[in-house]
């Protein structure tokens, strides 16, 4: 539609400057300034809006399905995990029972082994019961150990000692002479020798000691320092049968001395 506004200066503007003229009012209403839509566009907008709703609805359905699948998967995992824990708990319980049985078995075997070791040591101790060792005799070539041992016993007051054998024993160590191992025929003779050896051989450059098993020797050396301290204090002990013993023959308790 053509604009009906008259051309030229507005009415009343004659003899006035342009800057003094009042601003002209728009000839159209605000309603006319809004962009107009043709009727043919409205159905198209309604169609696009409907298509978006369908897409959102489909997306939500897919999300719900995915959540359901994840939930189902997690429930299956939880169920399998619970079963696995239960199976492992049963297995651990079974293993613990077996370990308890094995521990008891090991304790029994250790006790049996200890008993066997004590029995073997006792038997070895019995086989050495008539033996003693002479320590500190210089080793000579072609020496006669029986003659050496017999001479020492005669010097100690045994004029006719009954010797079964006498020989050097132990591994050779440079700078140290091996012991002379002596076996008497009678145990009582050995007891007399051991009882009087320290007194009768005082001042000699050799001495006599008992022929001990490896276990008994370890036990004797274990308390050697304590025995020396007790001797200086007036308590005398002697080693016999695998123990340090007091004057009454009872094993001495070093833990409550």
UniProtKB/TrEMBL annotation:
Region: Disordered, residue numbers: 1-36
Stretches of Polar residues bias are at: 24-36
Q: Which domain of life is it from?
A: Eukaryota
What UniProt keywords are attached to this protein's entry? Coiled coil
Classification via Gene3D superfamilies: L1 transposable element, RRM domain
Q: Which residues form a coiled coil?
A: 60-126
Q: Which PANTHER family match?
A: L1 TRANSPOSABLE ELEMENT-RELATED
Q: What is this protein called?
A: Uncharacterized protein
Source organism per UniProt: Holothuria leucospilota
